[in-house]
Structures are given as structure tokens and as C-alpha cells.
Design brief:
The protein has helices at about 1-15, 25-30, 35-50, 60-70, 75-110. The chain is an all-alpha fold. The protein has one domain. Helix 2 (about 25-30) packs antiparallel against helix 5 (about 75-110) and helix 3 (about 35-50) runs antiparallel to helix 4.
Length: about 120
């Protein structure tokens, strides 16, 4: 059983280093555990995440890990999560850039007119 945990640990380390946009599809291709165990654990994590997701803390993120486990079994879900990851990264990048632009716009009137403000 220790060898199985070691194998899972190596797979999860690989998952963290994998290329965004291909991470879940590649994960689907190399997941080492039996489908029954994976589906059961994934559904349990999703149920737990939904049950405690409204509480303060990381409860909602547990459901995301459950989805990742299910993506190891179902290729369409793996492809959906790959696309969702890329869109989330793009959205986050735009949000960060817009925040930086807004911050610069807020600074510029006070620099132009030192008495403003």
C-alpha cells in the first residue's frame, strides 16, 4: 500500500508541473488507481465540498479536487477542466491588468494637479 501512495504522490507532483491547458487530459491518460476508487473518492470530495462550501475556509475548493479526480476517469470532463483552466487564467490576467491600469489612472490626476485631492 505504501508503494501505491508513493505512486500517487509522484503523479500529483507531476500534475502540479504539467502544462496548463493539457494538465487534466494528460492526467486522465496516466492516472494509476482503479476507476471505482477514483469515482468514489471524487464523488465523496464533491459532496463534502458542496456540504461545507458555504462555511469560511477552503471547503468549496475540496469539490474542485473531486472534479479533478473524476476527470481522471472521464475524458470529456478532463477536456472541460483544461478549457476552464485556460479561461480562468485569461480572465485573471485581464483582471490584474485592469487593476493596474485603474491604479495608474487614479494616480495620474494627482500628479498632474498637485493641489487636487
Amino acid at each position: 500500500m505504501g508503494a501505491q501512495f508513493s505512486r500517487v504522490r509522484r503523479t500529483l507532483e507531476w500534475f502540479g508541473k504539467a502544462e496548463p491547458g493539457k494538465r487534466f487530459g494528460d492526467f486522465h491518460d496516466r492516472w494509476p488507481l482503479a476507476r471505482g476508487v477514483t469515482v468514489t473518492a471524487g464523488l465523496a470530495l464533491i459532496a463534502f465540498g458542496v456540504a461545507v462550501g458555504w462555511l469560511p475556509g477552503p471547503g468549496g475548493f475540496v469539490a474542485i479536487f473531486g472534479l479533478a479526480l473524476l476527470a481522471a476517469v472521464w475524458r470529456p470532463l478532463a477536456e472541460f477542466l483544461d478549457n476552464a483552466e485556460l479561461r480562468t487564467r485569461c480572465f485573471w490576467r485581464r483582471l490584474c491588468e485592469a487593476g493596474g491600469t485603474r491604479a495608474k489612472r487614479l494616480e495620474s490626476p494627482s500628479k498632474a494637479n498637485p493641489t487636487a485631492g
